[in-house]
Design a protein that fits this description.
The strands form 3 sheets. Strands 1, 2, 3, 4, 5, 6 and 7 form a 7-stranded mixed β-sheet that branches. A 4-stranded antiparallel β-sheet has the order 11-12-8-13. It has a two-stranded antiparallel ribbon with strand order 9-10. Strand 11 and strand 12 (254-261) form a beta hairpin. The chain has helices at 17-28, 55-72, 101-119, 138-141, 149-153, 169-174, 197-207, 269-282, 298-311, 320-331, 341-344, 346-354, 364-372, 380-403, 412-447, 454-483, 485-495, 501-526, 532-566; strands at 4-7, 10-11, 34-41, 46-53, 88-97, 123-127, 177-181, 186-192, 212-213, 234-235, 242-249, 254-261, 287-293. It has 19 helices and 13 strands. By secondary structure, the chain is α+β, with helices and mostly antiparallel strands.
Length: 567
């Protein structure tokens, strides 16, 4: 698996498009970088940039972005609604795949040192890269913001991790940069039907983990209480892993609760939304919508959509796109401007940039015509996987119809759980449609290898054997996965909406055909294996699966016909 990390630098310029473009051009000048999002803010005078790539490429692109920002942004003239202390204010590295948070933290420390050494910009390390426990908190690192930076740079305790010393003409212009490593952070603003920053702040203090200072007598005007060490006594908020403030946005003419969710496992987005809604309502205010800043993981929207569907006692065994649409509407993600998952979900952004054409993205007509063409792929293996997907889809449909059947309200979760199982099978089988064609392409590539020398012929023979084995294992996986659809089909045939019994029967027939077709593809591939013992083992597995499928299909059809005759 490739090592992929995300970088989300925040630059202190949100109004001058030419400056922003120059910075992102510097980032994109590094080969292998995918620029996913550029989100400028007029009121905050700040731009959040998101890009991904392999670690070496990402750290080089980040360095070039910092360098260009230092050349173009003068912090002595900067003003905006968001806290900041440098031209490149924060620079977090985030593990996406194949790399740990600890590895990202080490990369962040090396990057911070390089920025200080080569660019003469003071750097602090925060979150997982922090040099002290206190500096894990960005608010501690950025204390006093740019205006307090001169005093901090000269302080041996408060000074930066790299680039220590008094403020110079250079650092006065660039400010300081916080380089860190963290897990996914969701930056979100909750829109309020008020213009009061004070009330927005009160709501933020109610919910953020830090909470608000305790006061004598519990009165807002009371004297702040302090502990024995002289530190303020805080009344914790209700949401762990969150930071929040209230502000007014001229651009929208409303106040917002601006929140960073730093631990999305402890406090998912939908939990934060509901809690801010509750706290706002307690103060006579309504949350009218939600604004996502930057990108979010797909699972955040899936979890939210399922949460709101459960509150409605509706099935969650529906396609992901529909679940995401429920999340968007439930939290008002499209109140201020259209919310397009293809532009806001990080996995979708990466997939879009890959530019790979998939069979499963074709229309039904397109898939059929492609199958009928002179090309040998897609062939029987892909068609078998698609028939298996249709079997799973039919079982899922009956479960969803049963979950929503009038008079069966007390059984909605039972059928919702079955529909979720069906959706998981559907997704696995749809993936196998393209994987089967990819397996065929792999065999063809192996046969195209050079065979001029003895060494080349040996390498070619080894590649052909490996590719052929893989080409046999893909349809075998199709068989095993399709076999798993029968318990679902049997359940909905026995317990589901009687009006949809025939659909369960068609699903069983499609599953049986899928398994029979995939078995033929297993056989034609193992016939070419030189390892005959392995071939015999695979054939035995395939034969057993087909036998079990015939028995399972017969049982489903018996139940279906019985239900039809009763109706």
């Amino acid at each position: 698996m490739s090592k992929i990390i995300e970088c989300v630098p925040n630059f202190s310029e949100g109004r001058d498009k030419e400056i922003i473009k120059s910075i992102t051009d510097a980032i994109e000048s590094v080969e292998g970088i995918r620029l996913l999002d550029v989100d400028p803010g007029e009121a905050t005078n700040r731009t959040v940039v998101t890009f991904v790539g392999e670690p070496e490429a990402v750290t080089e692109a980040a360095f070039r972005g910092v360098k260009r920002a230092a050349e173009l942004i003068d912090m002595r003239n900067h003003h905006g609604a968001h806290p900041r202390m440098g031209a490149t204010d924060v620079l977090p590295l985030i593990p996406v795949s194949g790399i740990t948070l600890e590895e990202c933290a080490e990369l962040a420390r090396k990057l911070a040192e390089r920025i200080a050494t080569e660019l003469d910009i003071p750097t602090y390390c925060y979150e997982a890269a922090a040099s002290t426990p206190a500096r894990k908190n960005l608010a501690v690192v950025r204390k006093g913001e740019y205006e307090g930076l001169a005093d901090r740079l000269a302080d041996p305790v408060e000074g930066p991790d790299f680039g220590k010393g008094p403020m110079t003409e250079r650092s006065a212009r660039t400010g300081a940069t916080a380089v860190g490593a963290r897990d996914f952070l969701i930056a979100v603003n909750f829109n309020l039907n008020t213009t009061s920053t004070r009330r927005a702040n009160a709501i933020a203090f109610d919910v953020r983990e830090k909470g608000r200072p305790a006061r004598e007598g519990g009165r807002l005007t009371g004297k702040p209480l302090k502990d024995e060490a002289g530190n303020p006594v805080m009344i914790p908020g209700t949401l762990k892993g969150t930071k929040a403030i209230g502000w007014y946005i001229d651009e929208y003419g409303i106040a917002q609760v601006s929140m960073n969710i730093t631990d999305i496992n402890t406090t998912p987005l939908h939990v934060a939304f509901d809690e801010v809604t509750r706290a706002a309502a307690a103060r006579g205010i309504r949350v009218t919508g939600t604004e996502i800043v930057g990108l979010i993981p797909r699972r955040t929207l899936i979890e939210a959509g399922k949460y709101f569907l459960h509150k409605q006692q509706r099935s969650t065994g529906i396609p992901d796109d529909e679940i995401i649409r429920i999340a968007i509407k439930s939290m008002g993600l499209d109140e201020l401007k259209p919310f397009d998952p293809a532009e806001k979900v990080i996995e979708d952004m990466i997939a879009d940039n890959a530019g790979k054409k998939k069979l499963v993205d074709m229309t039904l007509t397109g898939f059929a015509r492609e199958t009928a063409s002179e090309s040998p792929a897609p062939g029987g293996g892909s068609v078998s996987a698609y028939m298996g997907a249709l079997a799973a889809a039919l079982g899922t449909m009956v479960a969803n119809l049963s979950a929503h059947k009038a008079g069966w309200d007390d059984r909605w979760r039972e059928f919702s759980d079955k529909a979720e199982q069906g959706q998981a099978l559907l997704n696995r089988l749809l993936a196998l449609v393209d994987e089967d064609t990819a397996a065929f392409d792999r065999v063809m590539a192996a046969f195209s290898m050079p065979r001029g020398s003895e060494q080349e012929r040996a390498a070619r023979a080894e590649a052909i054997e490996a590719a052929t084995l893989y080409a046999a294992m893909v349809p075998l996986t199709t068989m095993m996965t399709t076999l798993d659809t029968f318990p679902l089909l049997q359940y909905v045939a026995d317990e589901g909406n009687p009006a949809s019994a025939s659909d369960a029967g068609v699903g069983a027939l499609a599953a049986l055909a899928a398994i029979g077709g995939a078995r033929l593809n297993v056989l034609i591939n193992i016939a070419s294996l030189t390892d005959k013992a392995r071939a015999a083992e695979i054939k035995a597995q395939a034969d057993e699966i087909e036998t079990r499928a015939r028995e399972a299909a017969s049982a489903v059809l018996k139940s279906v016909e019985s239900n039809i005759m009763k109706s």
